[in-house]
Amino acid sequence: MVSLSAIARSAAGLVRPTPTYFPDEYLYSTLGRSIAETGRPLVRGGSAHFTALLEPLLTAPLWLIHDTNVAYHAIQIFSVTAMSLVAVPIYLVCVALSLKRSTALLVAAATLCAPSFMYATWLVSEPFAYPLAAGAIAAATVAIGRGNRRAQVLFLILAGAASLARIQLLVLPMAYFVATFVVGARTRTLRRTLREQALIGAALTLPLLLVLAMRGRLLGVYATAGHVDTGGIVGIAHRLGANCLILLYSSGWIIVPGALIGIAATFARPRSRTELAYGAVAVTFGVAVLVQASIWGDLDRPQERYFLYAVPLLAPFFALTAERAWPWARAHALLAAAMIVLAATIPLSGFATSVLKTQSPSLFGVFRIEELLGTGTGSLVVSAAASILALIALALPRLRDGSGLALGIGLACAASLVLGIAATNFDVNDSEGVRSWALPSDPSWVDHALQKEHLGSARLVRAEASWGDVHLQLFWNRSIRSVNLVPGALPIDAYAHGHISFSDNGTLILDGRPLTGPIVADEWVTPMTFRNARNVAASQFDELVLPQGNAQIELYAPGFYRDGLLKQSGSIHIWPARAGGAVQGHLSFRLRAPKWLPKAVTVQTSRSDGLPSMIKIAPGTSRVVKLVVCNTGRWDFGFLADHTTPYERRSISLGATAPVWQPDASACPRSW
Length: 672
Fold this sequence. Notes:
Layout: H1 2-14, H2 24-38, E1 42-43, E2 46-47, H3 54-59, H4 68-84, H5 87-96, H6 101-111, H7 126-146, H8 149-165, H9 171-186, H10 190-196, H11 198-213, H12 215-218, H13 232-250, H14 256-268, H15 273-295, H16 304-307, H17 314-323, H18 329-345, H19 361-373, H20 375-395, H21 403-438, H22 445-452, E3 458-462, H23 467-476, E4 480-485, E5 498-502, E6 508-510, E7 513-514, E8 519-522, E9 528-538, E10 542-556, E11 565-566, E12 569-574, E13 582-592, E14 601-607, E15 613-617, E16 622-632, E17 635-641, E18 645-647, E19 650-652, E20 654-656, E21 660-663
Parallel strand pairs: 3-4, 3-8, 4-5
Antiparallel strand pairs: 1-2, 5-6, 6-7, 8-10, 9-10, 10-12, 11-20, 12-17, 13-16, 13-20, 13-21, 14-15, 14-17, 18-19
Helix pairs in contact: 1-4, 2-23, 4-7, 5-6, 5-7, 6-21, 7-8, 7-9, 7-15, 8-11, 9-10, 9-15, 13-15, 14-17, 14-18, 18-20, 19-20, 19-21, 20-21
């Protein structure tokens, strides 16, 4: 089953042409490259202060592959295989709980169907943290239930590795401690239980105290994890409820009533100490990650990415209920009826919109279903399917010879697979869209252009391109070693970047020195013309420029989109070849108002060598703007439109060609 999962999902990874989840996929990949090349976890040559280093450490050898595309897909296959191993600890949990081997295999199969596997082809930590968390839960079950010393050592190793993959999984030791006290108290052997767990206590107490005392140093960028936004009891309850709802869908829905009965049974009537231990550690851990997702992170949306580790822990509880011959049948029926009401009254469509879905594979799946069927129809189909599953759940206890267990697991697998396949399909389509929108036919265009020029590295000069586009270029082009910001540009992340200024003759200054060497100029919303330089390659957003000597900019025009649109406000700046020199010549560009604009647009302009003016353009018309420029020193031109129109996730005022500058001393009168 692990092999089949790895093969099928690797095939899905091979058709995902580019990473899209930034900054995470960029961050993990650049750390892996840095470890492979330098042995140190650096981002653009600067210290990363990043604690979750397991994924970069494990994938670093694959980043030694020179071809970025080959390395990318090799890491996908590695990640998919690692994540598919989650079936092994879940199978072993079922064996430890004395479930039938056939039941254990069914539960393991359900584990491999979760929508969470959408992350398997992403360059993030989840593919490695997922099986490690499940393995730690399995080891904790045996360690607490049987007092097994080897299982205790294994738990320490797996919990440590899981925390190194995802720092949030530091809750694993805390769940272990809570479960130890619960088992000891429930079996009235607290002292003996604590003595059995002395190794764990001694091994974990000091590290946990160090984490609390030296959080800023040890946790790096996660040092602020303790600063949570509770939003009051009502806010927490609302977010916790939304996260629990997504958990029910991602687990297959039909098994939830039986799983809840199984949880209650493990505490009220445990058949063994091991069963009680599993109930205590799984429930404690599940509640902990759900609470994490409800008080920390992107609190405006469900965060399945944070609690997905609880999903594989529900199926064993369902299996326990089935093999106990379905106890508490009335309670099971009430829970199934409640699931029908829940599916009918709270549709997932409200959560699967805009950015609300971005942390949840299940919601990606729902959104894709609604795309295919229409929002209303898709939402109705999802709710109806959940209601039907809950109705079938009512009948499961009446089935004999284990068919209730097989039917429940089978339908849960089918429901989870539908959501997972839809989520993966959405992800692949999104990746293909990003690939065609932001990258040329050769995504490593900078690397290959520099190789032809026999040059080693370049720096990216960022103006107004989205941080996602910058991360995309950085991922595919290893030769881009640094990111430098023009005045007014925002950082793309919290890691190393430089600040550029313009001298009186347009020379780019970084750290007090003129900038030299190849430059990847961000021209998405900011056309740039360099003096004494060659443009040797380009993407949809950027130009690779090779200056001769110091990088000297002649024209800079923030506000003009590369695809022919105009922001509401912007400017044009032209520098002389020498400080204090003359700027003389003609500047021209065309403004056009598409027919679909609701009304005429009036643009107010200003210039450093003349009076303000007004330009009015009606829908369906255009106008060529020609300006004679006569100025000493830098010349500035500004514009402001009276209103904007939404267009392709942007607010634009008009269409516009890029400004064309033609130096011409004869353009100005001799008296000037």
